[in-house]
Write a structure and sequence with these properties.
Length: 142
């Protein structure tokens, strides 16, 4: 009987959290700031193409920034465990840049539930393009 009471109490708490909007699909996570020292500053107008492609400093920054901000959902080394897209399969070049830019600016929502926050609200354009630069190094064909 005690187990049944605990189960009911747990369901009540979960229902309250869902009703209050306190639950995100991957957790209510605040992205971490990215130190972009050593990279050219890009200003406020978003670039359409990754300006740091192949830049060793950007790749280094991007690797750390990815681990802090993206790996929880997209997997270590960008190898997805099924929760979120496998970013190693992101198209290389400007075509992949277009999708990446759209997603980090707009996030992802399914059935009204945020699955990914609008990362550009938390991480600078420089930090996000650095992540994209690192992801380029992990690319695999499907």
């Amino acid at each position: 009987m005690k187990k049944l009471g605990s189960a009911i109490q747990g369901l009540a708490v979960a229902g309250f959290m869902l009703a209050s909007g306190a639950v995100w699909a991957h957790g209510d996570v605040t992205p971490q700031a990215v130190d972009t020292s050593g990279l050219e500053q890009l200003g406020t107008e978003w670039r359409d193409e990754n300006p740091y492609r192949g830049n060793p400093r950007a790749i280094e920054i991007g690797e750390s920034a990815y681990a802090q901000n993206c790996a929880r959902c997209h997997g270590l080394e960008a190898i997805s465990g099924g929760i979120a897209p496998d970013l190693r399969k992101l198209e290389p070049g400007v075509d992949g840049d277009e999708w990446f830019k759209y997603r980090v600016q707009n996030g992802a929502v399914r059935n009204g539930v945020p699955y990914m926050p609008k990362m550009a609200d938390f991480i600078s354009q420089e930090g996000l393009w650095a992540i994209r630069s690192w992801l380029d190094t992990k690319h695999v064909d499907e």
